[in-house]
Amino acid sequence: MSDHDLIIRGGTVLDGTGAPGRTADVAVDGQTVSTVGRVAGTAEREIDADGLLVTPGFVDIHAHYDGQASWDERMIPSSWHGVTTVVVGNCGVGFAPVRPTDHQRLIELMEGVEDIPGTVLAEGLSWEWESFPQFMEALDPRAFDVDVALQVPHGALRLNVMGERGAARETATPDDIAAMAAQARTAVEAGALGFTTSRTLNHRTSRGEPTPTLTAEADELVGIARAIGTTGRGVLQVVSDFADVDAEFGLFRRMAEESGRPLSFSMVQFPQWRRQLDLLTAANADGVRMSAQVAPRPVGLLLGLQCSLHPFLRNPVFGEIAGLALGQQVEALADPGFRERLLAAARDEQRHRGHLLESFHALYELGDPPDYEPDPASSVARRAEREGRDPFEMVYDLVLADHGRAFLYLPFLNYNDGNLDAVGEMLAHPHTVPGLGDGGAHVGTICDASFPTTMLTLWGRDRDRGRLALPYLVQQHTRDTARTVGLLDRGVLAPGYRADVNVIDFEALTVRRPEMRHDLPAGGRRLVQTADGYVATVVAGQVTYEHGEAVGPLPGHLIRGPQPPPATSEPPGRREPVPRTGGGTDE
Ligand SMILES: [Zn+2]
């Protein structure tokens, strides 16, 4: 008999509390950490972590795996990036509650807002549910590679209660509000971690209509928030264009204040982003729990022949081959005559509309590994200028590279200044947490679920315009994100906490170039992205991935509701381990 189930030996432990790294062993028994310190004795399994980092598993609170969790076991690509818990149902979109007659409407909403193809959703979703608790029942028996937590989305709620009036963004009546509030409350009581809504024009259904929740009025939002408040649990998440920063922030503050529940909002480098940080500071100083979810790099579009977008998508000559398979497109594009015709049409379009060349200033070749803070001097436009080449020709060749599998990168948010200095300021603010990875969504244009890896590599190691302390970065993506959504049982490596652990070769840690796979339901495509350097990932005490390869176990499950801190009440970060009863001879 071994003394422990698992011992991770001699690594540099960053325990999620922000404490500096220290050399320690981590012992795991069952699903929890039993010791962090010097561990004598033996284990069923030992991992030699000498020279490696040992961190809590990452908690990604901004994902959209609502559909994927219903048909797949693996929350890829997040689980390739050290993520051990995902929170889905963000931004007001999801698939419950739903009337049987509204399935197509919710598919169009998710297809439009999150760029998950309708065919994928139509084939993948089983629709065995109507109410939110029934959706939870459907996911309950499933096993995953990570823990999955749900939130109740306002878009679904509004359509379910108001039907056509909800879709048409009519003002909710007091009865509508009462019904939505009651259902939101029931969802949170059943185990939804929170309630989410969207107030951005960037979110539209696949028919191009604004999301049903875009213009929901204060009475509706505050009414629902208050109902959630009566449960004494649950969080609120919102995304907004912040057109009027003070008014919008004021509304969100009211939701948090009147419900007594914490609220987080998506934050990017909008013109008044510093004002948002100031308002956050003020709210928290007044005891109102609010935080911003920020991205550690640009929110970036990937352009290429395999993607939903590329620079010649609207080019009439390209239109001749738009319906062909990639291989045939590449063949056609390699033909000099075709090339001449297509480029002529592109220059013609430029003369008439003039938008293409401008975007070439914000367009970069994406290498392997990708550079997520590219020097503006390396943009397609600037390169073409330097090399005395026609920018259209350059883009043509870049798109055609690697047998048509190359990507161009268009950082479209957080890159106003051609660098990430503003992002650094956001990340360092005491009331922000990393988020916005959008795992499971935007599968044909964005691959940002690798944010946790970028957080460590770019901000902890590579950046020469200023970095942040590694213990802080780990804390942000573990304890802090977990706390933001009420999961107090994880995110810290200390006795009694859930044994979600990453063993990381920090020097080797690298985000690889994205790739397009065709493995969604109905053969749908999705961008995925691997990483080097994750030596092992442990979920609930079981090794799930080693060196990026799935090992087998699926210890993850649906999380029902907020989770209390460990009963051991060991203050996180305390050095002495709690003595184990029976077996081990801990320090
Ligand atoms: Zn989102």
Write a structural description.
It is built from 19 helices and 26 strands. It is of the alpha/beta class and 587 residues long. Strands 1, 2, 3, 4, 5, 18, 23, 24 and 25 form a nine-stranded mixed beta sheet that branches. It has a six-stranded parallel beta sheet with strand order 9-10-11-12-13-17. A four-stranded parallel beta sheet has the order 6-7-8-26. Helix 5 packs across helix 7 (174-190), helix 7 (174-190) runs parallel beside helix 8 (218-229) and helix 18 packs antiparallel against helix 19. The longest helix has 18 residues, at 336-353. The protein starts with a strand and ends in a 28-residue tail after the last strand. 52% of the residues are buried. Residues 573-587 have low confidence and may be disordered. The structure holds zinc ion. Zinc ion binds next to loops.
Helical segment tally?
19
Q: Please report the distance between the alpha carbons of the first and last residues.
A: 20 Å
User: What small molecules are bound in this structure?
Assistant: zinc ion
In terms of DSSP E residues, the strand content is 15-25%
Number of strands: 26
Rounded Rg: 24 Å
Helical content (DSSP H or I, runs of 4+):
25-40%
Query: How confident overall, as mean pLDDT?
Result: 93
Q: What is the approximate shape?
A: globular
Helices and strands: which structural class? Answer: alpha/beta
